[in-house]
Amino acid sequence: MKIALIGATGSVGSRILSEALTRGHMLTGLARQPEKLQARNGLRAKDADLARPLEVAKTLEGHDVVVSAVRFRDFHVGDLLEAVRASGVPRLVVVGGAGSLRVASGQLLVDTPAFPEVAKLEAQAGATVLEALQRADESLDWTFISPSALFTPGERTGSYRLGKDDLLIGQDGKSRISQEDYALALVDELEAGAHPRQRFTVGY
User: Fold this and answer.
1) Three-state secondary-structure class, residue 123
2) Could you give the CA distance from residue 100 to residue 203 in angstroms, rounded to a whole number?
3) Strand 161-163 relative to strand 198-203, pairing
4) Roughly what angle, to the nearest 10 degrees, separates helices 77-87 and 120-135?
5) What's the total number of domains in the chain?
6) What Gene3D superfamilies does the annotation carry (predicted)?
7) pTM above threshold 0.85
């Protein structure tokens, strides 16, 4: 599979890149500082700034899928959608956020009292991206993958659970997923295409 990964140098993006390359996929890593990408078999690095969507579209052309691993506050969703549509790539997979997931009370996680104030603007921007995808016409095959509440670098255990719109809670009472296992789940989705035009979530 030919994958265009926007945000390839980030914490999550770099783990997705490694997972996909390990499985033999061909990747184009797009970043504002592509020189940070270490040379690896199957990888080519390209400069990209989503504020210039038509330039990005030229780099995306010819790929099977675009993956966005960019922080929501670092781009405008309209620019991302314009770049993907102009490129002719039919499929977009987005590294989502947990803030728009429901909790047991029926509230969104971002609206609960314990949600960190410092993370609210990013979570709200993520919800805006999800809403834009849900409004997109059916010519775009999109998937938005939300992590669990605690989403940090860790261990690749090789196991995870899937959910839909509700926050997953593990047997230990915590909502968490390592970035390594999230990358595993995302590349599994790239290969299987099991959630077209849907949001789903991943956790332990």
Assistant:
1) helix
2) 15
3) antiparallel
4) 40
5) 1
6) NAD(P)-binding Rossmann-like Domain
7) yes
